[in-house]
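Practice problem: predict the structure.
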Amino acid sequence: MSERLQDLTEAVVDRINAGSYSQSFTATRAYFARLELKDVETLTVTVTPSGDVAEVVNRNETGHTMAVDVGIRKKVNDVDNDTLDPLADLVEEIKTQLRFANLDAVGAAWIGLEHGTPDRLAYLPEHLDKHRQFTAIMRVSYFLVQ
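Answer:
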């Protein structure tokens, strides 16, 4: 992974951790977000790099459209609205913290956030069904010129 994408991923972690939320957690950066169920007993927020697409902007500069994935996971005992609604609310809180937020520390401009699109489910029902784990994944995209 490029240093540019590492810096962006870390800046997203910092942006998330700077927010105020209804539930306590500390977001972390990882290359691979696979966790064992025993590691997800508490609320886990992981930011992973997703991609960096470069394009020529002019003779001297390259534009980079970069994306990171934000995963929110927690083991749950019950799969009912009383248990899942607060987690769904937390996902919305994190989205609000990231939406329209430029990351000045790395010179990146926010360009989009995907969560619950036709290609990407808002929540992973198979994780709830098979593992009793709430899982939500969103992709956040940024643009920067170098």
